[in-house]
């Protein structure tokens, strides 16, 4: 096993998957935070060469072994379809590469826990790309709750029903074996964001899913449900691929006030947070920054031994456990316990 480099001036990255999210967000964030992308892996040689040329990446390879055997790579970003994450992440960890993996970490809890163990055993950093933790809006809400500004949290509501654009429709809508469907794509983000904002863990889920014409192969393209947290907080969520004109939001209501986040469940550094209490209504000050750059800066710091990534591998196991519980609850019509097994 190659030993990971603990500190360095510049982290050198390999991309496992020539993906849209890497092109639109992650490559730029790596570069903006002092990293360098040196190679990309695609099973299609033609796609890989074209992607590398378009993104200014020096190398493209067609196999995982070709990427992980490169001594110039310190860390990998995994953005392949969900059923591939486990084997790719474990191989990367055993090769001494730090790992940033897209959510959900895997399609089963057993696989996700194996990924966490492999990273721990190899002494590398494993992070889950839950970008919403990095939003100024959610950090302001977390800080306000921790400071007691709304009293005791009682309930929350998440509005994360959006429209899945045509260029992203593919496997998310027609491949159950790849972890398709709105729950493992969006609901896992809701759960992670609620865990982060509330400082609390979900323990039970109930849900109803919907097939409204976009998803195929028995997958859901919308879902509504409720999560119950350890503290007793209950949280509603509405997620969808089919709502073209909805606004996203996150609300937390407490015994002494409410926090109203609008346009906050997004990849963009936008949105507002309003505090309502006995003194009236006012917007919280926000320092908007690129969410992915904030996450990559934390990841690079973690590699250097300075703190943790924004969302750890364990955080990814928690969000997957909640997502799978929501899937089961929607299928069974019963309340399902959320048990990450960590």
TrEMBL record:
GO molecular function: 1,5-anhydro-D-fructose reductase (1,5-anhydro-D-mannitol-forming) activity; nucleotide binding
Keyword Oxidoreductase: yes
Stretches of the chain forming a coiled coil according to its record: none
Oxidoreductase listed as a keyword: yes
Domain GFO/IDH/MocA-like oxidoreductase: from-to ranges: 138-259
SUPFAM superfamilies: Glyceraldehyde-3-phosphate dehydrogenase-like, C-terminal domain, NAD(P)-binding Rossmann-fold domains
EC number: 1.1.1.292
Enzyme class: oxidoreductase
Keywords annotated in UniProt: Oxidoreductase
Record domain Gfo/Idh/MocA-like oxidoreductase N-terminal: where: 12-130
Top-level taxon of the source organism: Bacteria
PANTHER family: BCDNA.GH03377
Listed name of the protein: 1,5-anhydro-D-fructose reductase (1,5-anhydro-D-mannitol-forming)
Lineage of the species this protein comes from: Bacteria, Pseudomonadati, Pseudomonadota, Alphaproteobacteria, Hyphomicrobiales
């Amino acid at each position: 096993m190659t030993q990971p480099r603990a500190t360095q001036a510049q982290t050198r990255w390999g991309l496992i998957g020539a993906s849209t999210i890497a092109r639109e967000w992650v490559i730029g964030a790596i570069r903006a935070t002092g990293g360098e992308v040196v190679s990309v892996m695609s099973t299609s040689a033609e796609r890989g060469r074209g992607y590398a040329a378009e993104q200014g990446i020096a190398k493209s390879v067609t196999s995982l072994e070709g990427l992980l055997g490169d001594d110039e790579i310190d860390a990998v970003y995994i953005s392949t379809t969900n059923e591939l994450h486990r084997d790719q992440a474990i191989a990367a960890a055993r090769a001494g590469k730090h790992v940033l993996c897209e959510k959900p970490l895997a399609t089963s809890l057993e696989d996700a826990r194996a990924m966490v163990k492999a990273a721990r055993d190899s002494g590398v950093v494993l992070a889950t790309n839950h970008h919403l933790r990095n939003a100024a809006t959610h950090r302001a809400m977390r800080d306000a709750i921790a400071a007691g500004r709304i009293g005791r949290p009682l309930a929350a509501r998440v509005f994360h029903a959006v429209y899945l654009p045509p260029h992203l429709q593919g496997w998310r809508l027609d491949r159950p074996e790849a972890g398709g469907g709105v729950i493992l794509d969006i609901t896992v983000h809701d759960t992670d964001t609620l865990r982060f904002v509330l400082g609390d863990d979900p323990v039970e889920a109930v849900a109803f899913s919907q097939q409204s014409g976009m998803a195929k192969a028995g997958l859901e393209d919308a879902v509504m449900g409720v999560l119950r947290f350890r503290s007793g907080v209950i949280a509603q969520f509405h997620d969808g691929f089919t709502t073209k004109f909805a606004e996203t939001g996150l609300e937390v209501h407490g015994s002494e006030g409410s926090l109203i986040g609008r346009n906050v469940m997004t990849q963009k550094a936008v949105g507002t947070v309003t505090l309502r209490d006995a003194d009236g209504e006012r917007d919280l000050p926000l320092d908007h920054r690129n969410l992915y750059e904030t996450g990559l800066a934390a990841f690079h710091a973690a590699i250097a031994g300075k703190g943790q990534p924004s969302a750890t591998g364990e955080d990814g196991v928690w969000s997957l456990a909640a997502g799978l519980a929501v899937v089961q609850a929607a299928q069974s019509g019963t309340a399902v316990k959320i048990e990450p097994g960590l």
